[in-house]
Amino acid sequence: MTAPASDPMTETSGRAAGAAFGNAPTSETASGLVGDGARPADRLWWVALVVYGAVIGLYGVVPEGLPRDVVYLVVGLSVTVAITVGVRRHRPVVVIPWALMAVGQLIWVVGDTTYSWQHDVLGSTASPAPADVFYLLAYPVFAAAMLVLVRRRQRGRDVGGFLDSLLVTTGLALLVYELLVRPALEGGPRSVLGDAVTLAYPLGDLLLLGAVIRLLVAPGAWVLSVRILLFAVVMLVGADLVATGFLLYADGVDDTPWWVDYLWLTSYGAWAVAALHPSMRVVTLRSDETQPKFGAFRLAMLALSVLIAPGTLVVQQLRGLPTNVWPVVVGSALLFGLVIARMDVAMRQISRISQERELLQAELAFEAGHDSLTRLPNRAQGMTIMGSALARSHRSGIALGLLFVDLDGFKHVNDSMGHGAGDELLRRVAARLQASVRGGDTVVRHGGDEFVVILEEIVDERAALCVAQRLVDVVAEPVQLTGVGTAQVGASIGVVVCDVEELDPEVLLGQADAAAYRAKSSGRGQAVVFDGSFRSELAEHASLAVALASAVRDGELVLEFEPVAAVADGSLRGFQARPRWERPGGEVVDRHRFLAVAESSDLACDIGRWVLASAAAHLVAWAAAGDTLTMTVAVSPRHAASNHLVDDVGAALSGSGLAPDRLVLEVAEGVLTGRNRAVSNLRMVRKLGVRVGVAGFGAGYTSVARLNELPVDAVKFDQGTLDRGAGSSPVILQLMLQAVHSVGLSAVVEGVERTDQLAALQAVSCDRAQGRRLGGAMTADEVVARLDGRAEGETSFRAVFSD
Hints:
By secondary structure, this protein is α/β, with parallel strands linked by helices. It has an eight-stranded mixed beta barrel, surrounded by five helices.
């Protein structure tokens, strides 16, 4: 199709409207959702690509005139159909832009049809023509489609992107005026209406180009559909520029060259393929980028736009053309103003980003030094604050107080009401603590359910103790938790008033922690002051810890074994291994004492690892014991919760060759409360085939019903339970044993020392027992001797019921 020779601007600008239509989807998908919702097997766009390629290839053999115009119109109409099919098939996130493109393309087809009827059927070349109405009407439709894409793909306002697109559009406007508008206006006298139409087309082109540029600078990624649309836009704009330039500057030629039609047809075909591609579904999704990237391409585009004005004067000068200064001056002034505005926006963005960075750095610094739950200083920050407070105390000579607050009953609230309730309780307690201390004092969350209060310029221990007692009362008040009811916890507080010479925060904290431990073990809900007796205890504890470390290293520890027998007939069922420490000189250190010291460090894990390996090796070495006896090893809470328990058990089994089902790990009942690492470790140990027992059952931590949910195979009752059962109420022990058996577990009672106790266990059908009445603790050599005697017919392990 060609434009009338009398007005080349009419046709070429009309073709540019099609360029705008093709460019509308140049916006890309956002958030990286490339291909979202696409069906991999969808190949309709491939079919369209092949069909349009064939049509374009055969277009040259179609006779010129009306037949070729009909093919051209069918291709244009098919683009509208393709958009409609693409929308119905792929269901894009936002339909409006595609609908506007389809409407604009349909208007464009009507304009082409009107022009063909006027030009080829009626033979009229009058300008302006009715087709101009449709061509010009399509411009705002296409522009609206692209502006919707811009709005949908970005988050918030992008003033910088708007100014960038306006700056580039202004530069292009000056170029279009010099290359197209001014030559057309200076070509000869025209009517007012003709001049208006001549100017309307380039203005419409600039509107569409501005919208296209706005899409190009908007944030977001590119899917294949957008790339194809961009190619279609390039073809359309290129065809318009070539046709316009040819008609304006080729003397004696009154029509566009034949090959320009191929550019227009290629753009239409690309447009249809883009609409049928599955990725068109996500073209309008918003971008995750809050600010578009100012890349090299964008910078080059802006630089070239600014250089258009002086470049125009240079070209006019070099080619000897009449210099047209005022348009260049006006264009330069507009570009200069836009550059200033863009610089202002850029400076504001830099300032805002700098402020946001400073706020983020301050927030990160705060987060690094504060607990995220309670917003109190965390342990690391608390140690820094304590160090500064100690330095001030040293300079002023005024004492410093420290309170170590350990909540009582928090685990019960956390387990029974849920972790959300536990978190809320901690926040409420933290707020109460802060509200109950002086303005210059600091409350620190030490970790878990522990807090530290730093009291500066404290008078004496009495004043610190008064503050501690006030905190005990405040914490003990009931707390109404959201959605779960009322909870109540207590506080055990250790109080330290430091000597002004003491400048070590760790030492001060350890003293307060020791006093809090004493407060908790002495009945809870009270405050205890760290005094001289504590100092001697800590010194003794430290000395014993050093000696114990040497004992573990030098092999001073040995094992002793207590038999475990069947209650029904007294037959030997296994042993329980326990460490024994006899210091050089013959002093035997109380087991509970040195294990308590070990529990405060990784010595507990070292001792536990040695006991596991040694006990397993002993049982394998006692070949006379047969392959049915078991070895029970008590695992400390620290070792049970360590990262090495499973590996240590595996190493003990593989190193000794002991069958996993002959090893029983025994843990205290308190270790199994809540969801902790120890429970997870025990579950993995059971997967190895090792059995697990819980000692001290009945202390109040665990119900029988919950035993069924825990990784436990056996339950051990202590001597206190035995005494209750053997006294005035044997029914209590029987009921407890029946409950344990009901969940499929076996029962062991320790501390059996008398015949009446053993008889009571027989009466209630207890499974196994251990204690002095059944042999008591023995060394490895004594066990070997007894086992050898049993092999020879001795009944020492079975005669306990015949005495």
